[in-house]
Amino acid sequence: MFDLVIKDGEIVTACDRYKADIGISEGRIAAIGTGLAASDTIDATDKLVLPGGIEAHCHIAQESATGGMTSDDYRSGSISAAFGGNSCFVPFAAQHRGMGVTETLDLYDSRAQGSSVIDYGYHLIVADPTEKVLTEELPAAFQRGVTSFKVFMTYDLMRVDDRQFLDILSVAASHGALTMVHAENSGMISWVSDRLVAAGHTQPRYHAVSHPALAESEAINRAISLARLADAALLIVHVSTPEGAGLVADARMAGAKIFGETCSQYLFLTRHDLDRPGMEGAKFMCSPPLRDEATQEALWRHLQAGTFSVFSSDHAPYRYDETGKLANGPDATFKQIANGMPGIGLRLPLLFSEGVIKGRITLQQFVALGSTNAARLYGLDKKGSIAIGMDADIAIWDPKATRTVTVEDQHDNMDYTPYDGMSVTGWPSTVLSRGARVIENGALIAEPGHGQFVARSRIDLTGHPGGKVPELDPVTNFGARIAP
Ligand code: DUC
Ligand code: ZN
Ligand code: ZN
């Protein structure tokens, strides 16, 4: 009666944990019960049966504004994601200045179609918000199912100014799209960087010095203020400081439509990793930069307390060679080295091992942070849970398997992993995408092209009342009266 049954596992969702079988028909979950039968079965005895992970922040087949290309394409990136327990991912489609948005999405379609082994969508990066982009192309992108737009407050070739940011927030709000922001103060970073380089402090370790915590908190505060003025939803991506996380938490408490994300590197690495000999520290350069142990602890608290809706890898793979980190030669200053590090295949195993096994978060929180919250926030309506009618996107985990991370065991197109040598307990063994085996017992089964583009829905802002600021309320103030 079913195409496939997963038998005798322990199902875990964002709220429940129980033993049952899952019957799958035509790619969807058709039944949850006991004694289900089919000619094709997977024995999940002693295993956890979880919604497949959703990696909602990764850079795949993406050029930087200066032309550098990530080392992973949709084939290698999706395979690596799947080996790490993911059955869906949402990389970025980056508009650069002079490009149209429709042209950008067509380009990324040509990169993704026929290549991915898991389902995918895109967050659009908006770097050139012309009138046409704002009035025609962003609404068209939304209609196409691309319902989240990222902006940068830093990087000279990418950043938008406050007024452009407000325009994008306002268009997004009128369609039910979610704006995402890289929040760092551009002037602070370039001012400190120039002083460091002038003083001869050019090694990778100065990258962390050049991106002070103040640059993040100033920009997050400004971004939240702009979103409140526009009464728009905003997700602060890759929050790296307790100050920034505190601003997100306060805004959420105040009812603003604000969401936060933190990433693997801020929980599992520190800026001491930049202190390696020669250029080795370049492997650990990302923006915002790695911080210290006290920051790690504070970010864990925010993860436990619910400040962060999503937890992502920020997989931004640049090899440690002339195609990536060393593109500007072995003597490049920290300003000339690509920002980003890999980790798409290790996000969930590291969170399981350091979070669940070490008793910092529950299994249900693990599922919420790794899958369910991203599905709800980003409008992936058929994904992120185990329930009848949902896509059969499922990851079967062996919670006792212990392995040491090596670069050889990674499936991305990288020549290093920043997590090398870490001991990790809890690994996915089998991953299904719409009922089809993508990974089974450590082997790749699916063909490139199995993964399909998923059109996403508008954001659900229930429980985030927001509200017009008095100055923008036509009743109280368009006649320039003072609110009662
Ligand atoms: N922002 C990201 O989101 N990832 C890599 C580098 C960056 O600046
Ligand atoms: Zn960013
Ligand atoms: Zn990123």
Shape: globular
* Largest sheet descriptor: 9 strands, mixed
How many separate domains? Answer: 1
Structural class of the helix and strand makeup? alpha/beta
Radius of gyration: 22 Å
Give the mean pLDDT: 97
Question: What would your notes on this structure say?
Answer:
The chain has helices at residues 74-83, 101-112, 131-143, 162-175, 186-198, 205-210, 213-230, 242-253, 264-268, 293-305, 347-357, 363-377, 474-477; strands at 4-12, 17-25, 28-33, 41-43, 48-51, 53-58, 86-94, 119-120, 123-125, 148-152, 178-182, 234-236, 258-263, 310-312, 394-404, 423-433, 436-440, 443-444. Helix 4 links the parallel strand 10 (148-152) and strand 11 (178-182). Strands 1, 2, 3, 4, 5, 15, 16, 17 and 18 form a 9-stranded mixed sheet that branches. Strands 6, 7, 8, 9, 10, 11, 12, 13 and 14 form a 9-stranded parallel sheet that branches. The protein has one domain: Metal-dependent hydrolases (TIM Barrel). It starts with a strand and ends in a 7-residue tail after the last helix. It is α/β, with parallel strands linked by helices. The protein contains 13 helices and 18 strands. Helix 7 runs parallel beside helix 8 (242-253). Helices cover 30% and strands 21% of the residues.
